[in-house]
Each structure stands twice: as structure tokens, then as C-alpha cells.
Design a protein that fits this description.
This protein has 153 residues and is mainly α. The chain is built from 6 helices and no strands.
Length: 153
């Protein structure tokens, strides 16, 4: 029976009283928050860039986003090599990753660019559309070629 089981259990001892933490002496010292000074003190944190895959239709947009971020975070970028390395870190897919591999392995790395302007010129030559009309014609040609292949099957 239940009563017989309860009688066989050892007596229950009281738990020791729980020590309450002292409010007078915190275990973690308070952190002093220092507000940034200067004209940029009111600007919230900037959003990081999206990864870039080398698509020529979005190359100009990607580079402009990089320039905007660098402009508003200029204290973080004290050299052109650091700016270039930071931009390359967002180029992780398709043609962009091939470009980064070539820069890092074939041409001598980030130091192969004499300055930011040289990198920007190379980026534009590689990832900006040569001519919007020509780019549109290439897209149409590729679509027409795909449609003609599909009609063969």
C-alpha cells in the first residue's frame, strides 16, 4: 500500500538556506559607456554588404555600396590594401571568387594594386557592363540560344 511505501522512505531533511546575492557588491563591475564624439556620433551602425557573385549587372551597385561603407567607416580603413582586402572578402561566389583567387594567387595578392584607384579601375574593367546595349543584346542572345536548344528536344 502507499502508506507502507511512505513509511519505508528515509526521513526528509530540510534543505540548507539559499544564500541571497548581495546587492551592495555586484559580481561584475559596471561598464562605463562612453558615447562617441564628433559629427558621426548620431549615425547608427552601418549594414554590412551582401556577398557579390561577379554579376556584371550588379557590379556598379556593389562597388558603390563598398565606397559608401568605406566613406562612413574611414577610421577603420587606414590603408588602401585594407580597403581592397575588405572588398575582396565579400566576393565569394562564381566569377567574383575566381577573380579573388587570381588576385591572391596569380598576381601577387592585394599588393599587386598600387592603390585604391588601380583596384577600382581593375574592378570596373572586370565587373561593369561594357555597354548597356551590348549587355542587353548578350542576354537576349543567350535566351534565344536556350530556347532554340529546348525546341530541339
Amino acid at each position: 500500500s502507499l502508506q507502507a511505501l511512505l513509511e519505508r522512505l528515509p526521513p526528509v531533511t530540510a534543505l540548507p538556506p539559499r544564500a541571497e546575492p548581495s546587492l551592495a557588491t555586484p559580481s561584475v563591475p559596471p561598464v562605463a559607456l562612453v558615447a562617441p564624439a564628433g559629427p558621426w556620433a548620431q549615425i547608427p551602425c552601418l549594414a554590412l554588404l551582401d556577398m557579390y557573385d561577379g554579376d556584371c549587372t550588379s557590379g556598379e551597385h556593389f562597388l558603390q555600396s563598398c565606397l559608401t561603407y568605406i566613406h562612413f567607416s574611414r577610421d577603420a580603413f587606414d590603408s588602401d590594401a585594407l580597403k581592397i582586402a575588405w572588398v575582396l572578402s565579400y566576393m565569394k561566389a562564381r566569377q567574383a571568387s575566381t577573380y579573388v583567387l587570381c588576385v591572391l594567387q596569380c598576381s601577387g595578392g592585394v599588393g599587386s594594386f598600387t592603390d585604391w584607384a588601380a583596384f577600382e579601375k581593375d574592378f570596373q574593367a572586370e565587373f561593369f557592363p561594357i555597354d548597356p546595349a551590348k549587355s542587353a543584346a548578350l542576354v537576349l542572345h543567350n535566351r534565344e540560344q536556350w530556347v532554340s536548344v529546348m525546341t530541339c528536344y
